[in-house]
Structures are given as C-alpha cells and as structure tokens.
Amino acid sequence: MNLNGQEKEGDSIQVPAPTGWPLVAAFGLTMVFAGLLTHVMVSALGAVTLCMGLAGWFRQVLPHEVHESVALEVEELFGPVPRPKVRHLQIGELGHRARLPVEIYPYSAGVRGGLVGGAAMAVLAVLYGLLGHKSIWYPVNLLAAAGSARISSMSYEQLLAFDGTGLLLAFLIHAAGSALVGLLYGVTLPMFPRRPILLGGVLAPVFWSGILYAGLGVINPTLQARIDWKWFMASQFAFGLVAGFVVTRHEKIYTMQHLPFAVRAGIEAPGIGNEEDEGGSGV
User: Fold this and answer.
1) DSSP readout, 180-220?
2) What is the C-alpha separation between 120 and 214, in angstroms, rounded?
3) Residues 6+ apart with CB under 8 A from 127
4) N- to C-terminal Cα distance for the chain?
5) How far is the C-alpha of 182 from the C-alpha of 117, rounded, in Å?
6) What is the pLDDT of residue 283?
7) What SS3 state is found at 6?
8) Each residue of 207-242: pLDDT tens digit?
9) DSSP state, 38?
10) Is the pTM of this model over 0.85?
11) What is the pLDDT of residue 8?
12) Are 17 and 68 in contact (CB under 8 A)?
C-alpha cells in the first residue's frame, strides 16, 4: 500500500469504486419532504427510495470498502518552455524614460531619398507628356501653374510649348516638395521597422494622394482640371518606393534623448556630464 492508502498491483492501482447510491438516497430524501406538500404516496415512495439508497451505499463501504483496478499511465515529462527574453534599452539603463524609436535615419538620408524619388517621379511625368500629349513640357507647365497665374490661364496649345518661367517654377516646386516629403520619410520610417518599404511605397502615397485629391482645387486648379489620375498614382508609387529604398539603405543613428539639453544644443558647459563616470575616473 502506498502513502495515500492505495494498493499497487503490477501496472495497476486499487482505488475506491465509484457508486451512485448516495444520489439515490438524496433523491429519496427529497421525495419524502416533497410529499409533505403534495401527497402521502410521494413521501412513501421517497422513503422506500431512501432506504434502498442507504442500503446500497452501506454495502459499498461495510464491512470492507469496494475497490477497483485502474491501469497506470506513464506521464511524459516536458522540459520548461523557454521564455522570450526582454531586450533592455541602453537608454533605460541610464535612468531615463526612452521615447521610441531610439534609432532614426539621418535627416540627410531623408532629403537624399526624396530627391532621388523626385527624379523617378519626373521620369514618369515626362513619359506621360510624350505618350499622352507628345510634349515633355505639358506636365512641367501643369505643375508650374501652382505658382503662376499667367501659366494657370494658358490654353492647351500653350501648355504644350516651352516656357522658361514654367520650367524654373516647376523645378523649384518639385525639388522642394520632394525634399520635404523625403525628410518626412526619414522621420517616420523608423516607426515601422518591419515593413518600411510597404509604408513608403504603398501606404504613404495612398495617404497623401487622398489629401491632394481633396485639396487640389485650391492648390492647383489647372492641374485638377487636366490631371490623369492613373499616371499620377503611378508616379506617386514610384516616388514612394524609390525614396523608401534609398532611406532604408542608410545606417540608423542613436537619438540623444538621454543627454541634457545643453549637450544636445552644442553648448559647452562643465558639470553636466555623468557623475558616476566622473567619480570612476578619479577626477
């Protein structure tokens, strides 16, 4: 017999046999009290059921408790499941609450990516002018119409011709816009480390194209009246993919959020360094 009072026989163990007689006795007792409210025959039937239940129950335990054999099953032992390790940020170890992301792309990477993406967009715009209107100056003048009332009032034939002011305005608008959007890429792409190209090449162009669709009538009415949205979306996706690729090719740099403001501002001020480092250096 083991410590729990259970006998082992080979590959089986002796345990108390299950019995339903206690339930029969409880049901009989319930019928006895139910008959007090209904009919005497219900109480009589309940008394008989109660006696049968008690007799059957007592026979299971007196004079010896009834047992039955249960086969033993070998339990497989599994090792502890390794828990994922928590990566501690170095900034947090310095006693400063970290703001994510702790690594960003240089601003120069965003500007460079925007300019390269703008060049890819310009190639598609020129291709659209050649295939759709047989003039490379047509998309240039449409873009320049945002900065010149004279160009915005031109006829279709005039938009097909070369215009020096239109070329200069289109170049400035396109270069400035591409650099600013590229700078925005450099800031936002570290927030999406798993799918940066998906964000830069698909989600972001769809987002700002929706904004332009709603406000183009105010920004450039001439472009809104003559725009080909299929070519426009193709150029936006080209810009996003190229700019996102160029930005992600650059190495990230750590932010200086854990440093005092004076250090981040480039101010030379003594006594703002790490006191623990100064104490350890023996100064």
Assistant:
1) HHHHHHHHHGGG-SS-HHHIIIIIHHHHHHHHHHHHHHHH-
2) 24
3) none
4) 75
5) 8
6) 37
7) coil
8) 777 777 777 778 778 778 888 888 888 888 888 888
9) S
10) no
11) 52
12) yes
Q: What is the pLDDT of residues 63-120, one digit of tens each?
A: 778 878 878 777 777 767 776 676 655 555 555 566 666 777 788 888 888 899 899 9
Cβ partners under 8 Å of residue 208, min gap 6: 181, 236
pLDDT in tens, 161-185: 999 998 999 999 989 988 988 888 7
C-alpha distance from residue 236 to each of 59, 85, 133, 213, 231 (Å): 88, 41, 20, 13, 9
DSSP assignment of 53-118 = HHHHHHHHHSSS--EEEEE--PPPP-PPPPPPPPPPPHHHHTT----S-SEE--HHHHHHHHHHHH
Pairwise CA distance, residues 111 & 95, whole Å? 34
For residue 16, what are the β-bridge partners?
A: 67
pLDDT confidence bin for 127, thresholds 50/70/90: very high
Question: By the 8 A CB rule, do 58 and 50 touch?
Answer: no
What is the residue type of 97? Answer: R
For residue 150, which of 222, 96, 201 has the smallest C-alpha distance?
222
Q: Give the Cα-Cα-Cα angle 59, 62, 68 (nearest 5 degrees).
A: 75
Report the amino acid identity of residue 236.
Q
Average pLDDT, the chain: 78
